Amino acid sequence: MPSTSRPVTSSQRRGALVALLLCPGLLLAACGKQDPCGHAAGLALDVKPGPAPASWVLFDPAAKAGAAPLDGEILAIAAGPEDGAVAAGLLRAADGPRLFAITLDRAACVVQAWTAIPAPAGAEIRRMVAMGDGGLLVAGRAPGPGVGNDEAWVARYDGQGRSLWSVVEGEFLYVSGLFETPSREVVTALSLLPDGQIAAAGTADVNAALYSNWVLLLDEAGRVRRRIDLPRDDPRTPGELAAVTQQSDGSLLLAGTLTPDSDQADAWVLAIGADSTLLWDRRYRQAGRQRVLAAAALDRGLALAGREALGGGAGDAWLSLIDSEGEDRGTINMRAGDGSEDGAALRALVGDQGNLLAAGGSGRDGGAWMLRLTPNGAPLDSRSLAGGGQFNDLLRLDDGRALAAGRQGANGPPLLVLMAPPRKH
User: Fold this and answer.
1) Is the dihedral of CA 15, 21, 22, 27 positive or negative?
2) Among 265, 269, 295, 304, which is disulfide-ready with 243 (CB 3.0 to 4.6 Å)?
3) 131 in helix, strand or coil?
4) Which pLDDT score, from 0 to 100, does residue 29 have?
5) Alpha-carbon gap, residue 195 to 169, rounded angstroms
6) Which of 325, 409, 308 minimizes the C-alpha distance to 364?
7) What pLDDT score was predicted for residue 341?
8) Domain boundary among 95, 117, 139
9) Which CATH number characterizes residue 414's domain?
């Protein structure tokens, strides 16, 4: 599979710590405006100062001056080597989509970058997880055997952009005893669990009429160790899982959305024991369409976040706290909808030493923003960028700062923004 991967030596990065020394956790006006990294030859991708202090956008060093910005976004970010970070995402080009990953040092200088054409041909990318070695996990669906049969797809790429393994997994569902109809399966939630397993959860449907949900547990070599088919009260109701988290006892919490009709969408959480048994199944019904887009594990339970459609294209971002028994401890609207086509939505959640970090966007004309919240969902501080765009993932750094990743504008370029540590009171 074609890929490009070009490392840069440390001697080419002299002065990279200048930004850190000048801006030790503070969002000063100089931060992000300076360019201490330089742009060494040989990188597949690099970063340059972005639209605001302490922000960076990706660009192609080989592109001609005045070329259009990269069309794409960062979908996932993770801790990297030596207090750095790894950001992974998708670029859109005339010849098709390309995967990418960049490894940054602690001053946000690119030290490794690669791009690759996803395989197999025809694969649809739905979820991504950045890996600390500079690689990524990617999942979605790929063409299966037979006409119209799409199967769940999970693949692993290393820090050089090489494909380590690719798994296409699916099952045939039967409409009746006379006719066999292939199912369309897709991974809609992907997670690297604390115990080292890879969880890929998704949906199968037959003719968009009968639905089921499942979880695949894979080892680091891509071997499927377990498939858990989840019970459904009504297989005619579409259900889409958005997140998988693991509790300290090995049980799984799966969060998503049930859509019984065109006017209703409900948050949905299931708890699955370490022995694959269903512990509990809860639907959280609100007046309207409440879609789950992200979840974060708490000490006892989890936080859900997403978007509530308000009608007319507007939407509110919301956050709910669910305890370990599935009880709803409160729902908070985080930001008013802006009336745009996309509306406001929270798309990323991570823990922050007892607090929560949340990030998302406010439609095409609003902007990307991130919030630091108390365990009860009360805002502590925030940062936003005007001009459209959204954040898709968050990384909490050891010094208390947070790095948000996504895109600037409606189509890109890919964007990184740093948020200061919590203010001391």
Assistant:
1) positive
2) 295
3) coil
4) 28
5) 22
6) 409
7) 39
8) 117
9) 2.130.10.10
Alpha carbon distance 92, 75 (integer Å)? 13
Q: Tell me the CA distances in angstroms from 136 to 72, 156, 159, 295, 358, one per residue in order.
A: 16, 6, 8, 20, 22
Q: Which helix (H) or strand (E) holds 166?
A: strand 163-169
| Structure token digits, residue 399 | 């010094």
Cβ-in-10-Å burial (0-12, 13-18, 19+) of 236 comes to exposed
Query: Which residues does 30 contact at the CB level (< 8 Å), separation at least 6?
Result: 22, 23, 53
The range of the structural domain enclosing residue 360 comes to: 287-425
Final residue of a structural domain among 80, 98, 117: 117
**Omega before residue 120 within 30° of 0, cis:** yes
Q: What is the count of structural domains for the chain?
A: 2
Instruction: Fill in the amino acid letter for 22.
Output: L
Alpha carbon distance 219, 88 (integer Å): 21
d(CA 90, CA 117): 10
Position with higher pLDDT, 179 vs 269 = 269
Look at residue 311 in the predicted model and tell me its pLDDT.
Answer: 64
- Report the distance separating Cα 343 and Cα 179, nearest Å: 43
Work out the mean pLDDT of the chain and round it to a whole number: 81
**51 DSSP assignment:** S
Q: Is 80 exceeded by the pLDDT of residue 417?
A: yes
Calpha distance 87→301 (Å, rounded): 28
User: Quick check: 50 and 58 in contact, CB under 8 A?
Assistant: no
